TrEMBL record:
The keyword ATP-binding applies. InterPro entries: ATP-grasp (IPR011761), BC-like_N (IPR005481), Biotin_carboxylase_complex (IPR050856), Biotin_carboxylation_dom (IPR011764), Biotin_COase_C (IPR005482), CPAse_ATP-bd (IPR005479), PreATP-grasp_dom_sf (IPR016185), Rudment_hybrid_motif (IPR011054). Residues 120-318 form the ATP-grasp domain. This is biotin carboxylase.
Length: 445
């Protein structure tokens, strides 16, 4: 096993990785920005190094500062968490060139999946279903209009280098496409340094279902079930559950097999997620993208499979066999994750501030992965995620009931928060029936 680990992230995911590292006897080093110095993950690490000011470009995305911290603390490996540098192929290569272990997939796999058009083409070649769309970047508006004419409106305009729901727009006709094309291209150039644009069929009513994969040290790729992620605002997830109430046993078999083929197509190692769009009322699904990292919503998979995915990541990175038998995977029960964000529960706009009250719910089947405690300040410099409230029970109705109680028991004051939204959602008929899709929040609002 790896003996010393630097966690190149912050907040709840850094705290969560450190928790597993310490359980395994792995020395954990945290890096932090100046404004994060008082957060729990910094105190809970064996050692902590300040890597710069609040601006992520000068701290959590500061490759030189992070590598210097690894050298000064004699870290053996780097775990990037999610976001920041986690899907940066150049950083992964630099880490390995420095003689360190990269806890994640190989840089080539990150590169292959980082470009949405290249990823679509690779998946199609591997026999993974993809939605109708362009096989090359739409280099100009004329090309985009011609592509939309062949695909058929409505279409999704996507930044080829984007991810996580960023850099996307919907066009219902030529006029809308003219506007969205310019908007997405400008956003992509500004955010990703790459203005390449993909045109793809847009499905007005769709479910977002993803498969957790793990590429093992011996070369095999295994699928650890699916997660339903259709409760979204602005293409960003708020709730995830496993298993999906929309997936039948036969569909699950096809979905998981496709995800394994996707991983095998890029010689995938370590944890990753194959995201798909599922057309409601049918067994038709399409590849959306592959996230070459640990997902925010990994706890629901952990609870259903009885695994620690961070431990499995460390074992793969160290060249060790997994803790489980890949040929005898047996999920049990139902898990639901609610993302507790510092945002108002109506318009979902950020509302940072000082946490005056923070009392987490407890009890059987309740897990809270949090990045803050009472007295901490949620700053405007980073994502608004404060904690993940995760519940587990034998059945979905029992898990929903447990979630209702846990939300009611979560005492939180100071920053704006979306707990009132979850109170509303957990009583929503579409959600409780399991018939919802990605437009649920729009209809609720």
């Amino acid at each position: 096993m790896i003996e010393s680990l630097l966690v190149a992230n912050r907040g709840e995911i850094a705290r969560r990785i450190i928790r597993t590292a310490r359980r395994l006897g792995v020395r954990a080093t945290a890096v932090h920005s100046e404004v994060d110095a008082d957060l729990p993950f910094v105190r809970e690490a064996d050692e902590a190094v300040c890597v710069g000011p609040a601006n992520p470009a000068q701290s959590y995305r500061n490759t030189e500062a992070i590598l210097a911290a690894a050298a000064s603390t004699r870290a053996q490996a780097i775990h990037p968490g999610y976001g920041f540098l986690s899907e940066n192929a150049d950083f992964a290569r630099t880490v390995e060139a420095s003689g360190l272990i990269w806890v994640g997939p190989g840089a080539d796999a990150i590169s292959a999946m980082g470009d949405k058009i290249n990823a679509r083409n690779l998946m199609a070649a591997a026999g993974v279903p993809v939605a109708p769309g362009t096989t090359e970047p739409a280099a100009d508006l004329t090309t985009a209009l011609a592509a939309a004419g062949e695909i058929g409106y409505p279409v999704m305009v996507k930044a080829a280098a984007g991810g996580g729901g960023m850099g996307m727009g919907v066009a219902a006709d030529d006029d809308a496409l003219r506007t969205e094309y310019d908007k997405v291209r400008a956003f992509a150039e500004r955010m990703f340094g790459d203005g390449s644009v993909l045109i793809e069929r847009y499905f007005p009513r769709v479910r977002h279902v993803e498969v957790q994969i793990l590429g093992l040290a011996d070369g095999r790729v295994v699928a650890l079930g699916e997660r339903e992620c259709s409760v979204q605002r602005r293409n960003q997830k708020l709730v995830e559950e496993s298993p999906s109430p929309a997936v039948s046993p036969k569909l699950r078999e096809r979905l998981l097999a496709a995800a394994v083929r996707a991983g095998e197509a890029v010689d995938y190692r370590n944890a990753g997620t194959v995201e798909c769009l599922l057309v409601p009322g049918t067994d038709e699904f399409f590849f959306l993208e592959m996230n070459t990292r640990l997902q925010v919503e990994h706890p629901v998979t952990e609870l259903v499979y009885g695994l620690d995915l961070v431990e499995e990541q460390l074992r793969v990175a160290a060249g060790l066999a997994p803790t489980f038998d890949p040929d005898a995977l047996s999920p049990r029960g139902h898990a639901i994750e609610l993302r507790i964000n510092a945002e108002d529960p109506k318009r979902f706009l950020p509302g940072p501030g000082v946490i005056k009250t923070w009392v987490e719910p407890t009890g059987e089947g309740v897990r809270v992965d949090s990045g803050y405690v009472e007295g901490n300040t949620v700053t405007p410099f980073y994502d608004s995620l404060m904690a993940k409230l995760v519940v587990y029970a034998d059945t979905r109705p029992e898990a929903i009931a447990r979630a209702r109680t846990a939300v009611a028991d979560f005492a939180l004051a100071g920053p704006k928060n979306n707990l009132p939204f979850f109170t509303e959602l957990l009583d929503n008929q579409e959600f409780t029936a399991g018939t919802y899709d990605t437009t649920l929040i729009t209809r609720m609002r």
